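Researcher: Quick test of sequence recovery. Tokens follow.
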């Protein structure tokens, strides 16, 4: 097994890194673009039964392998790959793991029985604003291919170094953009709060200065009351926006669970329809069985009657045979007891 390991520490909270890198389809598309991949299809995260979430990424990648491998495997200019990602958070949400399996979909004879490629991301919280990421890529040849194993491992190591360098650069850029977007949203909320000010009150000259002053004080009190209401409303709105941001992940997870439940219901409905069809078929088979049983009973009754008829005929035949045997025996007895002595007497007389 050939395993290559890389490490990097990012100046970002662990949840921010997860959102900006793994929940951001733009990052995945940019990364595959940087590696000259085409026809990239990044699937949505779907909850699994083992408290993890799963997604599938399919893309075509250019073939940059040695010419000997290209010739032996009869590869084209690109090959279609499939990544199966599984993301799991720790119980304390201080770390998460992304395990990816890479499959080559259109290379004859290359599958899990021949070669197995695994990519693992382990992210651990260092502090509130720092996250350490360990990336490991392993290639295991289940069936050793003489003359190719060493070449493929060297090529994989070289290509993995280039890909990880691009991955780090894009990760740092997307983290900066993601953090700037969050800061901009917070600044917009603060600007809405601080931009509220009292409207200027013009004081005109008047002989009754105290009257004008009282009027200004009344308007100022009214304006301050309006400002307080506006500030309270904006603070409430800011609090609501913050709550919405915090609940966004839960909403996404709920939507994903709902989609899974809908698929389960569709599967249950399909199974129910199949059960109805099977039940109808079983009822029909049961009816045919009853009909065949009745027919078999009728045939059995006819066979019984035929057997009885045969027995009667045999009995009559036996009686007839007995009579004929008796008559034959009587004739022979008569022949030997009367005719034969008479014949002898007649001959002697002559």
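Model:
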């Amino acid at each position: 097994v050939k395993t290559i390991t890389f490490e990097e520490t990012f100046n970002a909270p662990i949840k921010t890194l997860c959102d900006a890198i793994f929940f951001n389809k733009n990052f995945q598309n940019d990364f595959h673009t940087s590696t000259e991949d085409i026809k990239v299809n990044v699937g949505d995260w779907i909850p699994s039964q083992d408290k993890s979430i799963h997604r599938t990424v399919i893309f075509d990648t250019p073939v940059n392998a040695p010419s000997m491998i290209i010739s032996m495997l009869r590869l084209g200019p690109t090959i279609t790959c499939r990544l199966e990602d599984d993301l799991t958070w720790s119980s304390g949400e201080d770390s998460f793991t992304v395990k990816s399996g890479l499959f080559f979909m259109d290379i004859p004879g290359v599958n899990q029985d021949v070669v197995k490629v695994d990519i693992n991301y382990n992210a651990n919280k260092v502090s509130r604003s720092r996250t350490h990421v360990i990336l490991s890529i392993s290639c295991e040849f289940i069936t050793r291919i003489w003359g190719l194993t060493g070449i493929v491992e060297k090529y994989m190591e070289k290509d993995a170094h280039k890909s990880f360098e691009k991955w780090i650069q894009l990760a740092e850029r997307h983290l900066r953009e993601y953090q700037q977007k969050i800061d901009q949203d917070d600044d917009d909320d603060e600007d809405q709060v601080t931009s509220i000010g009292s409207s200027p009150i013009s004081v005109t000259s008047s002989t009754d200065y105290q009257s004008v002053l009282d009027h200004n004080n009344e308007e100022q009190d009214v304006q301050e009351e309006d400002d307080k209401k506006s500030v309270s409303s904006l603070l409430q709105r800011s609090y609501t926006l913050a709550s919405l941001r915090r609940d966004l992940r839960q909403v996404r997870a709920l939507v994903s669970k709902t989609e899974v439940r809908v698929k389960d219901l569709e599967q249950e409905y399909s199974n129910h329809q199949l059960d109805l069809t099977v039940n109808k078929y079983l009822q029909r088979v049961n009816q045919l069985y009853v009909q065949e049983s009745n027919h078999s009973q009728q045939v059995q009754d006819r066979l019984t009657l035929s057997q009885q008829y045969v027995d009667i005929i045999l009995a009559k035949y036996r009686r007839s045979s007995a009579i004929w045997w008796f008559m034959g025996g009587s004739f022979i007895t008569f022949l030997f007891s009367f005719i034969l002595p008479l014949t002898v007497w007649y001959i002697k007389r002559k």
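The radius of gyration is 49 Å.
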